[in-house]
Design a protein that fits this description.
The complex is a heterodimer. By secondary structure, chain A is mainly α. Chain A contains 11 helices and no strands. Chain A has 2 domains: about 5-95, Rna Polymerase Sigma Factor, Chain: A, CATH 1.10.1740; about 105-215, Arc Repressor Mutant, subunit A (Orthogonal Bundle). Chain A has helices at about 15-25, 25-50, 50-70, 80-100, 110-115, 130-135, 140-150, 155-165, 170-175, 180-205, 215. In chain B, helix 3 (about 20-30) crosses helix 4. The chains are: A mainly alpha, B mainly alpha. The complex binds zinc ion.
């Protein structure tokens, strides 16, 4: 991450200390926090909203909210988690606003999946040719990932982002999205299976492709 | 354990929250079922990829604008006062 802050004394300092210095009124410390976390917040907002201008608005608003509420931040979580939470709430608010314009609720179809919906069966099953550690550095892979994510229904995408990417627990994810834990789990499973399917079609090694033998399996 | 049952408990297994006795059954099944083994492995890798990925760069013009705004809005007498 680029770090062109003038105040070099901030660079080797922990987030926790930067928060304290910000609380004490040091703007440079708060700017350093922004430099450290702005790209992550923006990426999260982009993944949630799929819209550059909206993602920028949410990012900016998140840091402004953080600035306003800095005195309330007690360090129970990391600054990173805190600012991401603010961004998630901001993005969800925007999504609800979009939804109310189109008259569709965020929890639409929540009941229909319930506990018992059938789970889509994995179809293309093959070992990946390369490890994620290698793949992650390729630009075309980033594009593949974001395209696959865009292919998910919003309700599945949100759960996957909060649970698997941001690392919130099932309970926290449920609270953030206003869903039941059961619903989170069902959606998460669908999201994981669908992303696996899409990615494996590109990243899988056809020579290792395996086919389910239903006779033995059932 | 059948493939279906394994699929239904995939989350718990991947997240490591599955009951130890179920976990053993799970692993026994995977030892004898390549498709399930590969699916679990694919899913683990899928999660790692998304976690580690750096999907978007912050547009430079936006970064400048953001910091300009932060400097403008920074309260003279300290934050939250
Ligand atoms: Zn199986």
């Amino acid at each position: 991450m680029s770090n062109d802050i003038k105040n070099a004394s901030c660079r080797d300092v922990s987030d926790g200390e930067l928060v304290q210095r910000s609380q004490g009124g040091e703007l440079a410390a708060f700017e350093e926090l922004a430099f450290r976390h702005e790209e992550k917040v923006y990426s999260l907002a982009m993944r949630m909203l799929r819209h550059e201008q909206d993602a920028e608005d949410v990012t900016q608003q998140s840091f402004l909210n953080a600035m306003e509420n800095l005195q309330n931040f007690r360090g129970d979580s990391s600054f990173s988690t805190w600012i991401c939470r603010i961004a998630i709430h901001g993005a969800l608010k925007l999504i609800r606003k979009r939804k109310s314009r189109s008259m569709v609720s965020l929890d639409e179809a929540a009941g229909e999946e319930g506990d018992h919906g059938t789970i889509p069966h994995p179809e293309y099953i093959a070992d990946w040719r390369e490890s994620p550690e290698v793949l992650v550095h390729r630009n075309e892979i980033q594009k593949l990932l974001e395209d696959a994510l865009s292919g998910l229904d919003e309700k599945h995408r949100m759960v996957f982002l909060l649970r698997d990417v941001e690392g919130f627990s099932v309970k926290e994810t449920a609270e953030l999205l206003g869903l039941t834990e059961t619903n989170v789990k069902v959606r998460l499973l669908r999201a994981r299976l669908q992303l696996r399917e899409v990615l494996t079609r590109t990243l899988g090694d056809p020579d290792t492709r395996v086919v389910r033998h239903h006779k033995h399996a059932r | 354990m059948k493939c279906e049952e394994l699929l239904a408990m995939l989350n718990e297994y991947v997240d490591g929250t599955v009951d130890p006795s179920v976990c053993m059954e799970y692993e026994k099944h995977m030892a004898g079922c390549d498709p399930c083994k590969v699916v679990v492995d694919n899913i683990r890798k899928t999660i790692v990829l998304y976690k580690e990925g750096k999907p978007y760069e912050l547009p430079l013009t936006f970064r400048n604008r953001l910091h300009e705004t932060l400097r403008q809005k920074w309260p003279k007498s300290g934050p939250g006062s």
